[in-house]
Amino acid sequence: MEISDRKRTILTAVIDEYITTAEPVGSRSIAESGLLDLSSATIRNEMAELTVMGYLEQPHTSAGRVPSPKGYRLYVNELMDRQRLSLEEAQAINESFDLKMKKLDKLMSEVGRLASSLTQYPAVALAAPVAATISRFDLIYVDGNTFIAVAMLSNSSVHNKLIHLPFSVDPGMVQRLSSVFNTNFTGIAEDKITPVLISSAERACGDTMGLVSVAAAFAIDTLGKAGQGEAYVTGASRLLRLPEFRDPDKAHELMSYLSENGHLLGLPESGESDDIQVLIGPENVARELKDSSVVLARYNAGDNIKGIIGVVGPTRMDYSGVAAKLRYIAEGLSRLLSTQEAPRGFEKLQIKEMNIGEH
Amino acid sequence: MEISDRKRTILTAVIDEYITTAEPVGSRSIAESGLLDLSSATIRNEMAELTVMGYLEQPHTSAGRVPSPKGYRLYVNELMDRQRLSLEEAQAINESFDLKMKKLDKLMSEVGRLASSLTQYPAVALAAPVAATISRFDLIYVDGNTFIAVAMLSNSSVHNKLIHLPFSVDPGMVQRLSSVFNTNFTGIAEDKITPVLISSAERACGDTMGLVSVAAAFAIDTLGKAGQGEAYVTGASRLLRLPEFRDPDKAHELMSYLSENGHLLGLPESGESDDIQVLIGPENVARELKDSSVVLARYNAGDNIKGIIGVVGPTRMDYSGVAAKLRYIAEGLSRLLSTQEAPRGFEKLQIKEMNIGEH
DNA sequence: AATTAGCACTCAGAAGGTGAGAGTGCCAAC
DNA sequence: GTTGGCACTCTCACCTTCTGAGTGCTAATT
Which CATH number is B5-79 given? Predict the structure, then answer.
């Protein structure tokens, strides 16, 4: 059965109202909203049919109607109007980006914080795993027993580690090691760093003390970390303000699910579209999310950095507002990350330096 | 008025019971516990006096008694028996340490997670701000427009940043810059890096393109970050399982207070003792913590890395158990951090390397 | 044929009333 | 100093009642 235009209007009205009140919506309030010039009786009939069709649900006879997941789905796909950001909101987002080019993980959690405070829902920020390789490797000699290993990865992130040895090494060896490493260990994937490769490198630079092993371990560790992806959750406590999570048990279930970050890493892979993705209630695989919805936006910069920023809330969620905000954030993030190599960064640093001198 | 031994015993019994049940304790249950060979009437009289003395409180006439903050204070200071860890608990802690020597911030949040899961309360991990200086500075030349700045701080942490320039620089300049930096910028505090110093360094290496400024900005930024301290909160959702936080508003208040990490950084400075510190209810300065208690343990390693690990819970908290666990964790952490320069780290890396080869 | 007014019916939740039980304070007896 | 006993208090759980929002259906109206 086709869903008539009038039904659509009514469904939209029901959902809009339910989103703001969190209370079952009755036929009368729709009639009085002035959206349609119909009596409550007519609307009642329509709502009854929408219920039969599965777009609405009734908590109990003689209560108003509540949108079903199917209803939300239609709403999200076709009915809701794409909301635009207010100037203030856009500005808040831009300012937060302007801050500085922090380390990636800081940036991520900062962006999560932003999304959460803007939407008033808990936010998750995921860095998608990227199969990186080492593009450059250096050892900095500190003293006989100590040096710093620095690895730059193909995704332009730089990692370091201070290494102490139980014996001392001469600077020449460090130099040699560094160059052997740069020829043998760059551009290859983590699992290509095999004992065979390591021992051949050991021979190449005459290392008998396991120095190569230490450096290789660092390389493997670094690549492993980059390939893992990370999840940050921010603003989980906001759940408690929502009427659907007044029950501490429900709130606890969802919050502890969210804070075991491992779980969330399951989300990313699905979905391709460049746009927002909405998962409504039972569309979520995880049992803990069955009564909640998730709105996700993907961002990516130059194929190397990919990530997801998302918001978790009750199925009754302000989808259109949340989507608009996430979309804006994700776009900004994509832009920021792909222009990181442009002059802007430099200018900013200089300006920052100037400020410091003043106080 | 002196508090008699018998009163002490009764107070202890009341608190012990209240800690486990979270319900006001009546004279009868104390009498029946068999701890004292007294009738409930006598205990009633004693409890009445304890109430007058301010160690106990009565939610309303004809309810049992509840310990007051003053009562908890006495309990923590004198009455509770120092609990020892079970073998399993000690083992869990040790295993978690064994993991690996992660980057400091990862380690911290990991330790917070550990404390939280062990105590079943939310945990906070603070890295105390340390006035660090740069002990070594290097620039790694990547290509004309790109190099990596690496700074090792006096607290042995190493930081890096990838710097892109809008113009190209020759390797010689990078070299010169690096050595000028090492002589002029090491061993000094953040606020000593003044425009005067910068321009003199610029002259010293013939830099006309602001390269020194960029590097100095990185240095300042790095020192600033190190001197800020960071706070991680883990397991906040556990609050919701406690009867005193069944009220979502209360839970929300505390949780959002905790998650605005800035607040917590206020905690550290007070208190000197090397041992556990307990802040009971109103002893906390922050209004949001007035109904909660905080147990803190300090750890430090070689004067350079200092931190706090703590647990937040209701005033009715298993102080003795929590204290024992925190003490153990803090000791382990101190040990781990100060032996980081010892051979162990090296051995572990080698072993790890071996494992990798096998699969 | 679609819409509407009207009406009986349903049901959750608020309001109020009652009783049980846990606990107290105090007194008189031991 | 300790105890048994007793009257008293107060919360909480439970029940009942009542109210009102909302429904579904039918008959009248457009």
Answer: 1.10.10.10
